[in-house]
Automatic annotation (TrEMBL):
A single MF term (Gene Ontology): ATP-dependent DNA damage sensor activity
GO biological process: mismatch repair
Pfam families referenced in this protein's UniProt entry, alphabetically: MutS_I, MutS_II, MutS_III, MutS_IV, MutS_V
Keywords: ATP-binding, DNA damage, DNA repair, DNA-binding, Nucleotide-binding
Protein family (similarity comment): Belongs to the DNA mismatch repair MutS family.
Gene: mutS
Listed SUPFAM superfamilies: DNA repair protein MutS, domain I, DNA repair protein MutS, domain II, DNA repair protein MutS, domain III, P-loop containing nucleoside triphosphate hydrolases
NCBIfam families membership: mutS1, PRK05399.1
Signal sequence, renumbered to the chain: none
Domain DNA mismatch repair proteins mutS family per the UniProt entry, residue ranges: 729-745
UniProt protein name: DNA mismatch repair protein MutS
Database matches in CDD domains: ABC_MutS1 (cd03284)
Record organism: Brevundimonas goettingensis
Length: 896
């Protein structure tokens, strides 16, 4: 019946009990994981694992038996409560190996009376490979990533096991951090050689995931290619595209990790979706953090751009929206396709409402498919698929093709509708599930009770026999009481099956009746005595046989459906994707209508022009408090056009504390993200030449955890911008240089602004309290001053939150201190100190004499373009013709 065991129980070493021998073998197979060792209704943990888990979970640590003369520390968790404990261990960064009983005690007995139940590791649970709803955040993706570097190129492979999606991105080394952070992985695999590599370490640190080092040999291209081909069951990877070596290595790491953690079970994965880094707006980890795109700086979703925007009604839709916002695009054509879809749904309020109502009822198809494929799903996952398929069909009906082709849905929506058209196979599966699966099935297949009556006649027959016999058993109780005069109760347990139970006192006459009595004694407990009769034991056998048969038939039915789902995993995931995309798109339309957002014009110029822009998150907060939000314009242009009316390339933003400088800076960066994510933007109008890299830095943010001083951190991040920003980039710098002595800070801020203007030539907003920087406007061609307006009225400071031309003359820091409740005597003292300082400064203001301003700096060395670097990295002698062709395509992509 059972397949031969992969790892038959081995004889234990001398002096070790057989079970402990099994445990030690499991631990040796997974030395880095906490081993959950199944013993009956508990998972037991031993030795160091027990100590770690008891500390992390607060469970009792006991001792049991001895190993090599020492007590064995032990702790246990009940099987039924495992998920909660698992979740806590995983959150604490642990990996857990589940060592289960893989046969029943009865099966073990067949191998010999002394045989112990065979156990094996059935899975290793790690942060990046979770699939259970109870362990996953419904509205966030859970991803496992791998990083590899070969021939000077980096690659990131990403798998979302819970939904079956795989991504592969090859990129330049300098873009590794941004590429990895865009996926927000929970776990990152890296060859051990790269673990402490200076070029890779910051990317790993910035990714936010738990880092696992694997043996570098696993990433060797030939071995890696074999593994990936095995994972997909294909003879050659080439059918999926021409992968770079680094991509194959990274995918190989993922494949190797899935092999061990899933104990050989093959997940249903989509072919790797390849995207070059040139397809996406690069946003490095520091920028993500500073702009609070999908998490606030404190790590919460609430208060982020994503949370403010999210009007999705399904968890798949929420994940699709999160991905869209986390990885905005760079290609104007693709961006405009996304915008077309949002606009079309925005204009059709009724259809949108019906669509959202329909979607609201659908379950998480993607995760259900993935669990079923991995053999971890249950009847409820089948119900999720049924509802998804049903809704897919009904949604198709909402989009009636109009007579006028001009009002037909745009391409992206048509693509979704196409994927929602069920193939005959999917149609059959849907009907099968509608006809065969109960409306509200149980969670687990094990106990049966999910196949509808009437679906399989032989199952109905077994169930009827079981239920009728149960009824006869119930009648039998009344008959036995009437015939014997003894107050019997019929009960059932796993050991005795059905039995008649009464108290010791009432049982007395039955013992005296002798062998003629129909009541056969089975068991005597302290207060109860249990009997059976020939009829009852026959009925018991019939019921258990029928019950067993019914259960086996339900199991077969489930397995049949499960296999169909596994076979149809890809088209099912395509349906799930289409539902998610429709949800995300209609949610963006809903939000746009709610907040009055407009469609941005996106092209490949170097323009940035916003009229009446608003910060979506701050606006929501300010409005909630009953205040109005002041919209602001912003115009920048990377193209070197001089003369009247030309836009600046770089604006110096000054103004009092609290006047809204940071809000203004971030709002413009967020508008870039929204527009390139294919979303409408909170503004009156916006024109955007696509941005290749977005940078946002706020001066002096502590990073004590990484042991860097505040100012050092600020400079490391600034250095990254100055080496990576291009004329197509967009940079916002907020008070760079403030973390050090005034003149050092001013000098650094000055030099950075100059470099961004002259060398990087990026569109830049530069907020500062160093009002001296305003003089850059006179010295450089494409610099303008902006200031946030405030006015003093009756000695009070009033913020207008309005950005206007010109520089601010002062920071009003003392007034802000007063507003903040600093005691009046301290404010008064500060004011008099300030007056003195200002008078002194006016008397010997020698700034213009400083070399900083007077000496013409040597022109900065020409920065190597990305193209130059890419060309320099090529080694034509070491390339096959195929690699040369690939390289040519890559270079072409860089140029676009
Ligand atoms: N355009 C606006 N309309 C309405 N309120 C605004 C606007 N911009 C900012 N605010 C309000 O002003 C507060 C302070 O803004 P912000 O932090 O941007 O000021 P700041 O100039 O950067 O200050 P500091 O120089 O002290 O860092 C915000 O929290 C918000 O409540």
């Amino acid at each position: 019946m059972n397949a031969p065991l992969a790892h038959p129980p081995q004889p234990a070493p001398d002096g070790v009990t057989p079970v402990m021998g099994q445990y030690l073998a499991a631990k040796a197979a997974q030395p880095d994981a906490i081993v959950f060792f199944r013993m009956g209704d508990f998972y037991e943990l031993f030795f160091k694992d027990a100590e770690i888990a008891s500390a992390l979970l607060g469970i009792t640590l006991t001792r049991r038996g001895k190993h090599q003369g020492e007590d064995i520390p032990m702790a246990g968790v009940p099987v039924h409560a495992m998920d909660g404990y698992l979740a806590r261990l995983i959150r604490a960064g642990q990996r857990v190996a589940i060592c289960d009983q893989i046969e029943t005690p009865a099966e073990a007995k067949k191998r010999g009376s002394k045989a112990i139940v065979a156990r094996d590791i059935v899975r290793v649970v790690t942060p990046g490979t979770l699939t259970e709803d109870s362990l996953l955040e419904a509205r966030g993706a859970n991803r496992l990533a791998a990083v590899a570097i070969r021939k000077g190129r980096a690659a990131v492979a990403v798998v979302e096991l819970s939904a079956g999606a795989v991504d592969s991105v090859a990129c330049a080394l300098e873009d590794l951090a941004a590429t990895l952070a865009a996926f927000r992985p929970s776990e990152v695999l890296v060859p051990d050689k790269l673990f402490s590599d200076d070029a890779v370490r910051p990317a790993l640190d910035g990714s936010g995931g738990v880092v696992q080092a694997l043996a570098s040999a696993v990433a060797e291209p030939a071995a890696a290619r074999d593994r990936v081909e095995r994972l997909y069951g294909v003879a050659s990877l080439d059918g999926f595209g021409a992968f770079e070596e680094a991509e194959v290595s990274a995918l190989g790491l993922v494949a190797a990790y899935l092999e061990t953690t899933q104990a050989g079970k093959v997940p249903a994965l989509t072919p790797p979706r390849r995207s070059g880094e040139s397809g996406f707006l690069a946003i490095d980890p520091a920028t993500r953090q500073s702009l609070e795109i999908d998490r606030t700086q404190r790590g919460e979703r609430e208060g982020s751009l994503l949370a403010c925007l999210d009007r999705t009604v399904t968890s798949g839709g929420a994940r699709a929206l999160a991905e869209r916002v986390a990885r905005p695009l760079r290609d104007p054509l693709a961006i405009n396709e996304g915008l077309d879809a949002v606009e079309w749904l925005l204009e059709r309020r009724d259809l949108r409402r019906d669509l959202r109502d329909a979607l609201r009822a659908s379950a998480d198809v993607a995760r259900a498919v993935s669990r079923l494929a991995l053999g971890r799903g249950g009847p409820r996952d089948l119900a999720a698929i049924r509802s998804g398929l049903d809704i897919a069909e009904s949604i198709g009906g909402l989009f009636v093709v109009p007579a006028n082709p001009l009002s037909a849905p745009p391409q992206r929506l048509l693509g979704c509708l196409d994927r929602l058209t069920l193939s005959p196979d999917l149609g059959r599966l849907k009907i099968d599930l509608i006809e065969g699966l109960m409306d509200e099935p149980p969670h687990l297949a094990r106990d049966g009770g999910f196949v509808r009556p009437g679906f399989r006649p032989e199952l109905d027959a077994a169930r009827t026999l079981r239920d009728d016999s149960r009824r006869v058993v119930a009648d039998l109780e009344a008959r036995a009481v009437a015939e014997s005069g003894v107050p019997f109760k019929i009960k059932h347990n796993a050991v005795l099956g059905y039995f008649l139970e009464t108290t010791a006192k009432h049982a007395e006459p039955l013992f005296r009746a002798g062998p003629e009595s129909p009541y056969i004694h089975r068991q005597t407990l302290a207060a109860q005595v249990r009997f059976t009769t020939v009829e009852l034991s026959e009925l018991d056998a019939k019921i258990s046989q029928a019950g067993f048969r019914a259960l086996a038939m339900e199991g077969e039915t489930f397995e049949g459906w499960r296999q169909t789902v596994q076979r149809l995993a890809q088209p099912l995931q395509a349906v799930a994707d289409a539902l998610a995309e429709l949800d995300a798109t209609s949610a963006l339309a809903e939000w746009a209508e709610e907040v009055g957002a407009v469609r941005p014009t996106v092209d490949s110029s170097l323009t940035f022009e916003v009229q009446g822009g608003r910060h979506p998150v701050v606006e929501a907060a300010v409005r909630k408090a009953g205040d109005p939000f002041t919209p602001n314009d912003c115009r920048l242009d990377g193209a070197p056009i001089k003369g009247a009316g030309a836009c600046p390339r770089l604006s110096i933003v000054t103004g009092p504390n609290m006047a809204g400088k940071s809000t203004f800076l971030r709002q413009n960066a967020l508008l870039v993200i929204l527009a390139q994510a294919g979303s409408f933007v909170p503004a009156q109008a916006m024109r955007l030449g696509v941005v290749d890299r977005l940078f946002s830095r706020v001066g002096a943010g502590d990073d004590l955890a990484r042991g860097r001083s505040t100012f050092m951190m600020e400079m490391v991040e600034t250095a990254a911008i100055l080496t990576q920003a291009t004329p197509a980039s967009f940079v916002v710098l907020d008070e760079i240089g403030r973390g050090t002595a005034t003149y050092d800070g001013l000098a650094i801020a000055w030099a950075c602004a100059e470099a961004l203007h002259e060398t990087n030539r990026s569109r830049t907003l530069f907020a500062t309290h160093y009002h001296e920087l305003a003089r850059l406007e006179e010295r450089l061609d494409h610099v303008s001053n902006l200031s946030m307006k405030a006015k003093e009225w009756n000695g009070e400071l009033i913020f207008l939150h309005e950005a206007g031309a010109g520089a601010a003359d002062r920071s009003y820091g003392v007034q802000v201190a007063k507003l903040a409740g600093v005691p009046p005597w301290v404010v008064a003292r500060a004011r008099s100190v300030l007056d003195r300082l200002e008078a002194e400064k006016a008397a010997n203001d020698k700034l213009d004499d400083l070399p900083l301003f007077a000496v013409a700096e040597p022109p900065p060395p020409p920065m190597k373009s990305i193209m130059d670097e890419a060309v320099a990295a090529l080694d034509p002698d070491a390339m096959s013709p195929r690699e040369a062709l690939e390289a040519l395509y890559r270079l072409k992509a860089l140029k676009v």
